[in-house]
Amino acid sequence: MSFPFPFSFLFLFSFSFLLPPSSPLPYPYNASFHIDCGGLTPSTDSYNISWLPDDFFTGGSTAVVSEPLHFRLQHEKTLRYFPLSSGKKNCYNIPLRTGRYYIRTFTVYDNYDGKSHPPSFDASVEGTLVFSWRSPWPENLARDGAYSDLFAFVKDGQLDFCFYSIATDPPVVGSLEVVQIDPLSYNSAGTGDSYILVNYGRLSSGSRQWGPGFTSDPDSFGRSWQSDSDYKTANSESARVITTKEKITGTEQAPNYFPMKLYQSAVTINGGLEYELPVDAKLDYMMWFHFAEIDSTVKKAGERVFDVLVNEKNVSRVDIYKEVGSFAAYSLNYTEKNLSSSVLNVKLLPVVGAPLICGLENYAMVPADLSTVPEQVIAMRALKDSLRIPDRMGWNGDPCAPTDWDAWEGVICHSNKNGTGLVITQIDLGSQGLKGGYISDQISLLSNLINLNLSTNALVGSLPVGLGQKSLVQLDLSNNQFSGSIPESLTSSNLQLVRLNNNLLEGRVPAELFSVGVHGGTIDLSGNKGLCGVPPLPDCPLFWENGRLSKGGKIAIGLSCFFFVSVLLLVIYIFCIRRGKNDYDFGLPSELMSLAAKRNRYQRQKSLMLLEMESQHAKGLPSLPLNPH
Questions:
Q1: Intra-chain end-to-end CA distance of the chain, in Å
Q2: pTM across the whole model
Q3: Pairing of strands 548-549, 451-453
Q4: CA-CA distance, 13 to 146, in Å (whole number)?
Q5: If we measure between CA atoms, which residue out of 180, 176, 214 comes closest to residue 36?
Q6: Which of 196, 416, 531, 533 could disulfide-link to 508, CB 3.0 to 4.6 Å?
Q7: What pLDDT does residue 549 have?
Q8: How does residue 522 score in pLDDT terms, banded at 50, 70 and 90?
């Protein structure tokens, strides 16, 4: 059975064989989220899984499937959809510590909107396209829904699971589950952390579908296992099922924690056993084969030997008993590179005895897409908040990734020079009805920005100093309400077009910026009554500029203060220091003249008194005796 959805392997939901609940197996990693998308209250299902009400979404609305009674579990009855009014790109942003995670979604339509039109949309994880849905869906898939899952690394403290609308269709999601797993699982030491493993078939031989969400059988990673019966070719339908209740050793061990139940059933056949798995071409596929010798009639090595062939290539010869003995788990993995067909053929051919297999996993190795360099993600998220970007523009997730999608509306990105990341080169948000926002200082982190157009909005505040990136060539901030001065940093850029007209800017225009128009560029500063300093603008006040003292004014005040302090110090010196060095009073020249005048008057008065006394003596006044008796 094939599916018309690239990068996805879907588990159809149609189960009448659900088993009684039991307690989940303890697991060494405790980070997990089970989100009931569209759900309003927390709940616990029949398998003892606790579900959170809908959370961590960036937009959208909630709905209920048209036939709730058709679904047994509560989280399969509700959904979140993302109409175009929420933007073409919407996400769940879940805070997670760095590590590797098992991620599973349940996608359902069930004609919730009454339009009988299942939507076309894509889904991405950490900026890499992983699932694609295209209308029309198969009838049973549209009605029953389907599970899809993968393994991915989260490196930045937040899982971005995003949806992208195709045309005007609203993406839908019923539930989202995230479980932390061993970072070394599935041979990550050999493949690195730059691949996402997308499930294209996780088969349990000789059993029906089981695992968390389907039965009470535990799996530490939360993996579900489906029956292999739909994937055996016609000549393998006579395969015989073997089961056991014996304990299987070597299970539930790091790093893959394969469950014991996987190895307690198997299929075997006299002759060759063959599977055909639907895949997408031009990808590498990681395959895991699971074996256990659960046939008690096999007593020693060499009694059951078979070859494993993938697309007619012999990849391994297997003797289970020789490797691990009986009732013990044995696994091997193989990677098929650059597959050129849409079917992956697997054969188990006998060498001695009949081949036997317990399970088979097949994962597409999807290379992680380039993502926006971290510092520019910070800048763009800051601008989203400061500019008050409306939801309809879909500024969610990575600004530039996945590269299969358009970047954020109004944003153009390119690869950086060494090809290791994406950078923002253009932001065009002219006439977008942005009101009351401002330009964040974090714009200085956009070191590759060439063109910035925020014209004809209602933005306010001052122009940040960081606006003057050397890369900037075109700047259009016209027809807003920006205030304050033009930052000198703009003169360090390579601007060829500057439009700052019709704002509330004031102060002196940097001469280097004005020279853009002189050297063949375009500059328009009209409609700013407070600007000055360059023709045809008025001259700037001598001591006042940009609503504050100019540089000349500061120099003049500084010189005046210096003169005043100098005079003050001179007075202090005269009154306090010089006076302490002399025994007579010291006065200013005017005071000295006053003292001299007083001394002269005293001498004249004394002379007049002596003359008067001599005159009286000459007139015969009696003289006093020298020796009175």
A1: 167
A2: 0.82
A3: unpaired
A4: 6
A5: 176
A6: 533
A7: 58
A8: very high
